[in-house]
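Sequence and structure are kept together here, with a separate record for every protein. A complete record is shown below as an example:
=====
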Amino acid sequence: MNTEWKVSCFKPEDAGVFPIPNGMRFAAEFPGNRECGIILYDRQGRRTRLPFSKEGRQGRLFGLQIEGNGVSECRYQYYYGDQIITDKYAVKVSGLEKWGAGRTRSRAVYGSLEAEAFEWEGDEPLKLPYEDTIIYGVNVRSFTMHKSSGVKHRGTFEGIIEKIPYLKELGITALLLMPCYEYEECMVLPAGPNQMTAEAETVLNNLPERTRLNCWGFQEGFYFAPKASYCAGTSPANSFKTMVKELHRNGIEVMMHFYFPPQTGQLYMLKVVKYWVREYHIDGVRISGFHIPFRMLAQEGFLGNTKIWCSYLPKQEIEDVENDFRNFACDNGSYRNDMRRFLKGDEGILNDMLLYQRRNPKEHGVINYFADYDGFSLYDCVSYERKHNEANGEENRDGTDLNFTWNCGVEGATKKKSVQELRQKQMKNALTFLFLAQGTPFLFSGDEFANTRFGNNNCYCRDDATGWIKWKETSFSKEILAYTKFLIKLRKNNRIFHMRQELRVMDSLGCGYPDISYHGTEAWRPDLSFISRMVGAMLCGRYAKEEQFFYIACNMHWENHQLALPKLPSGQIWVKISDTSNSCMETEDKKEEASKAEELAELKGRSVAVYRSLTIEMPPGKSGYRKRKGNGRNSK
C-alpha cells in the first residue's frame, strides 16, 4: 500500500464510488459472510489490497475512504472471498476499449477512478411532448460503421455527431440509442457437440475460440459507464456528453434503451435511470427486461419530465400519480403485427387499423412502429416472408417465425420491375400509416431509405453488412427517403395529425364536421365489414385551430377502387397532395394548382392517397363559409 495514503472506514447509505477532496469513498454491497474489500491498481500495475472492516459496515453495505495523492488515478476491483468482481456502479470501465478483442483473448475488466471535467454550457433536456416527437432508433456502431456512411469516426458517438445535418434534414426530433452502456460484446458459445448444417458449421468455425459478437447489448452490463468502444477518443463519458450537447443544440432529444435481466434489483434500475438523466442529460429511456419498477419510476419526482417508454404499462402502477408532463409511453398494442397484416391485405383488420391510427390516450403516450432493431427491416417486410438467419450459426432456428409480412411475389432480391414497383408502393403505404397516425411514430434507422438485412430477422450477432446500415443511394432508396421527408414535414406542419388529445369521432365544436370521420364509396358511409380493405378518413383542422381539412384515402385491396370525397365548406376544394402509386409526389413547398374540385378519390390497388383542402377565389357575392345542412353529411 502507498504509505502516504490515509485509509479509514465509514458507514455508507448507498453503493457507489464518491470523490472527496484528494481521495475517494468506496461503498459496496456484500452478504458479509466472507472476507471482502478493494484491490487498487496504480499506473505501474502495482496492486494494493484493502479489506473492508466491520466498523465500516451498515447492513450489507461496506464503506472505505482513501485519501492521498494518486488515488483517483487508480483502477480498482472488489474481491469477495476468492471472487474478483468489477464494480457494477463503476462510472468508467477499463479493459473493453477495443471492440471484439475478447474473441481472441479473455479480458480483465476494472473500474476506473480518473475524474473527467466537462462543460455543458447551459445544456438542458428539451422536454418535448410525445405529440411533437418523432423517434429515430439507432445502433451506435451499426449506424455509421459501413464505409458508405461517409463519416470519419465510423461506429462511434462522434460518428453520430457527423450525421446531425442528415438527421435535421430528415426531420426527426428524438434519437433512441440501443444499449450503449458498457458490456462485454464477446459471447462464448456453449461447449459440447452441436447438430448443425455444414453451412452453419463453416460459419461457426470461422469464429475464433467459438465466440460470437453481441452487437445489440441486451445482456447484463456496467450500466453507469458509456461503452468505450463507441468512443473515438480516450474519454467515453465526454464523448457521449458532447454528442448529447450537439444533438440538443440542433433540437434533437436523446433517449437510451436499457435492458435489465431477471436478477437486476428494482432500486438499482431506478438509480441507473436517474444517473443518466442527471449526469448525461438524456431526455428519456426505453426499458426492456424483467421486474420493471413502474411505480417507483412514476413516483420519482426527479423523473417527472423524463420520457419513459416500456412495451406495456400496468395502469394500476401509474394512474394515481399526478404529473403535468405525460412522461410514460408504451407500444400501441399490437400495432406492428396488425398493421403489417393490414398492409398485405388480410381480412378483418380494418376496424383495428382505424383504432390504432387515432389512439392517443390522455394518461400516457403510445408508440407506433412497423419495424425495429429486431425482426425484419421495413424493406424486408415487403421482400421476405420467411426468416433467413443461417449466417447466425443456429440453423435458422433463432428469431421469430411469425413475421406477418408479404414478399410481393418474389422471396428476396429481384430485378423484376413490377415487383420493385409494388414493394416501393407498399413501403410508402406503411410510412403513410405510420406518420399520419395520432400516436408517436418510431422509425428505425435505414428504414427511411429501404435498408435491408437480407431477410435476417435476428441479426444481433451480425457485425457486418447484414447488420450495418448501407448508405448507398439508388433510385429506389431516393424515392423512399423523399417520401419519408414529405410525410414528416406534413405531420409537423399540421397539428391535426399530432393532437394532444385523442380524436373523438364527434362534432364537439358544432362546426358541421367531426374531428375525424370515416367514408366509403359514399361519403359518411364507410364499409367496416370483415372483408373490407378500404376506407377514407377526413380530419377537420378546426379542432387544431387550423382551417385545412385532410382526407386519407386507403385501398389495401389488390384491385382499383373509388372513394367519395365529402363536400367541404364553401370556397374550398379537394386537391391531391400525394399518392403512393406515383413515383413523384407533390410536396408541402409546391403550390397546388387545380382547375376543378376533386369529387372522387381514384385509388389503384394497394395504394394510399392524401388530399388537402384548398381555398379558392369565390365569384362575387359567394364568398365566406356557409354551414351545410345535415351536419355536413353530404355525399359528394
Notes: The mean pLDDT is 91. Residues 55 and 322 are 43 Å apart (CA to CA). The first strand starts at residue 6 and ends at 9.
